[in-house]
Structure formats: structure tokens, C-alpha cells
Amino acid sequence: MNSKERVTLALNHQEPDCVPFDLGGTGLTTLHFTAYGNLRRYLGLPPVKPRVAAMAEQLAMVDDDMAERLAADVSPVRPDLASGFQFIFRDEGEHEAYFDEWGIGWRKPKDGGLYYDMYHHPLAGAESLADMQAVRFPDPLDGRRFAALRRQAEAAGAAGKAVALWGPCAGVLEVYSWMRGYEPFYVDLAVHQGLVATMLDRMVEFKCAFWQRALGEIGDLVDVVVEADDMAGQERLLFSPATYRRLVKPRHKRLFEFIKAQAPVKLFFHSCGAIRPLIPDLIEVGVDILNPVQVAAAGMDPAALKRDFGRDLVFWGGGVDTQQVLGTGTPAQVRDDVRRNIEALAPGGGFVFAAVHDIQANVPAENIMAMWDAWHEYGAH
Predict the structure, then answer these.
(1) 283, exposed or middle or buried, with CB in 10 Å at 0-12, 13-18, 19+?
(2) Can you say how many angstroms the Cα of residue 140 is from the centroid of all Cα atoms in its chain?
């Protein structure tokens, strides 16, 4: 059984020969540059300059030699940045900074910084609907975004891998919140809902334009489409279910139904945290796959999630707790956690093994391999 067959069975809630394994198939299941370099050295792989999967989070694309060594089942297909954009890094005293395609400013401490944090929000001062409508979005149809998609997808298919197609940006709600800044964003959710609706509609239009062309070109080669919107924290949702259902859910429904009308793909949706109260809503709007399955968050016990939602959702993630185990536990503790999570999530299919979100800089290579060894041992049927 090759990787594509294995993943296809899991996505259709059937048990393959072993639980599919993902490391690097999405920008939500990869590694920080530091952890990536450490793991390459541990595995005896030659040093490489990491290819950037996500600039702000300093995440690496997993190279083919590591994917082969670890038997990863999923290959990423990633659109490029628009032709008119490039990262230009600025010296801002104690920080290195850049602006992204959306005009959002990010900066990282020069001394020991691991990530870039937002510090400039182009819509922070917007006060009216006209202000919101005046801001220019990037071009979703810029040809550079699509130039390498078919080559990547055909290479993945020739290698027998499942194909995960990434989107052009973060989620519709996330991008708006980043452009606006968190404080005015939450005020908008409460008292300026017309502004939120306008911007989310614009974001959906941007995304639909991208997905229509991308899936029109390579939809026949794609298994999974990756979308995201972080809507929960460690203990609770970031806003009420009523707010989600009034403002966000109709836009998610429109976007996800549009995507799935373009090609026979599965919809992968990422939301960190204690997202359980919205899981029935996500199923209603067409989500097939939930990631990262943050097992340490409130209400996210994997056995209970599998019992209550396993007929409708594939769980992609949840393989090992990155908050309390993978970075700070012993290899034995990592193995035990992997075993428990596989036992909870694997029966009956509907599970793709990945760590809970990206593997962070502090995670020892020994613990990553303890995770992998445990997946290899306990994930086989």
C-alpha cells in the first residue's frame, strides 16, 4: 500500500495497513528551523539551508531526504508569493522586521528571538466602511502563485504520496484580525459587525478566486485542501458561539462549499485550542478534517472527540501533546503519550498522525524520534 492509498483509506474512515504519518505535509504540521536542523543532524542527514514554510513562525519545509527517512505519507503543494512581493528585512534597533503581502508588520528580537511577532496593523486606524473598502488586497490571481503547482503535484503523485494543497494566506478571520489589530478587532465583533462582515466577504472573494484557479489547474491531483482560522484558546473560545454563527459561519460555509465544488477534495481545517463547542458547526459547513486536535486544551480529550465526532470528522494531529510532553518530557513519556492518543483516535480509520501543531524550537531530536518510533510501533494494524 502506498502513501496515497493509505491516506485515502484513512480519510474515508477505513483502517489502512498503518496510521498515516504526516511531517511537513502542511504548514501546520512541520518544524521550527532550529528543531529541523537538530533533527537532520541526529539522523545523519547533510546540513541544508532551510526552505521557508512560514516566515513569521520560522517554519521549515521538510526536504525529500527527511520525508523519505521518516516515511511521511503527505507531500505539500504550496503556492508561491505574488510576483510583486519579496521579503525585505529592516533593521529596527533590537529587532529585525519585515512587512508581509497584506501590509502587516512583523518583528523578531535579534538577541535570541525565535519568531516574528506582529507590531503594525494597517487597518488599526480605520474608522468607517469606506476606510475598510479602500485598503488594497494582494492579487489572488498573480501568475507566480500558480507557476509551480502542477510540477509539485505531479512529483508528489509520482512518488505515491497524498497531496495537500496550501492556500495563499491564513484564514479569513485571522487575516482581518491581523490587519486590524486584536483590540479593535474584538471591539468590531461586538459593536461594528458591519465592518467585520464587509471585510470577511472581501476575504472570501479573495480566497474563492485563488481556489477556483488553483483547483482548476491541479484539482485532479489534490487530495486535501488546507484552510484555517484560529478561534479558540487554551480554556475557551475566543468569542461566543453566537458570534461565530452570526458573522463567521456563513462565510466559512460559502468558502468551503465553493472549494469542494471545484474538485473532489477533502477540506482540512485548522483551529487551535478548545474548539469543541464549534465542532458541530464546522461539520455543518463542510469541514472533513480537524487539525491540530489540541489534546491539552479544555474539552479536547481525544477519546471523547473520537466517540462524539469520529463518524463525521477525520482527526489530523493529536498524535503527541506538544505543550506538556514533546518539548519537556522524557522519550518514555513521549512514547506513552503517543500510544494513548493512537489508541483513542486510530480505531476505525479517520486519523492521520501528526504532532499537535508545529514542532517547536525547544523539542529535542531524541523526543521527535521517540514520537516517530512510537507511531511506527503502535500505528501498525
Answers:
(1) middle
(2) 19
Residue of 209, 225, 297, 217 whose CA lies nearest to 260? 225
The pLDDT averaged over each successive group of 10 residues in the chain (381 residues) is 98 97 98 98 96 97 98 98 94 97 97 97 93 93 98 97 97 97 96 95 98 98 98 97 98 98 98 98 98 98 98 98 96 98 98 97 98 96 68
- How far apart, in whole angstroms, are the C-alpha atoms of residue 279 and residue 282? 5
* Residues 366/332, Cβ–Cβ less than 8 Å: no
Q: Cα(107)–Cα(99) distance, rounded to whole angstroms? A: 9
CA 114 to centroid of chain Cα atoms: 19
Total residues belonging to the chain: 381
Position 72: which residue type?
A
Measured in degrees and rounded to the nearest 5, phi and psi for residue 352 equal -120, 120
Cell of 90: 529592516
**Every domain of the chain and the residues it spans:** 3-85+123-378
Contact (Cβ atoms closer than 8 angstroms) between residue 186 and residue 239: yes
**How is residue 264 written as a grid cell?**
473532489
Q: What integer pLDDT is reported at residue 380 of this predicted model?
A: 87
What Cα–Cα distance (Å) separates residue 316 from each residue in 2, 28, 64, 256, 270?
18, 10, 21, 18, 9
Longest dimension (CA), the chain: 58
What the block records as the C-alpha cell of 216 is 482548476
Q: Right CATH number for 3-85+123-378 from 3.20.20.210, 3.40.50.2000, 3.40.50.10490, 3.10.450.50?
A: 3.20.20.210
How far is residue 165 from each of residues 41, 77, 130, 214, 220, measured CA to CA in Å?
29, 5, 34, 9, 12
Torsion sign over Cα 323, 273, 33, 336? positive
Given phi > 0 = left and psi -120 to 50 = alpha, else beta, which region is 261? alpha
Based on its alpha-carbon atoms, the radius of gyration of the chain, rounded to whole angstroms, reads 20
Helix-helix angle 182-191:172-180, to 10 degrees: 110
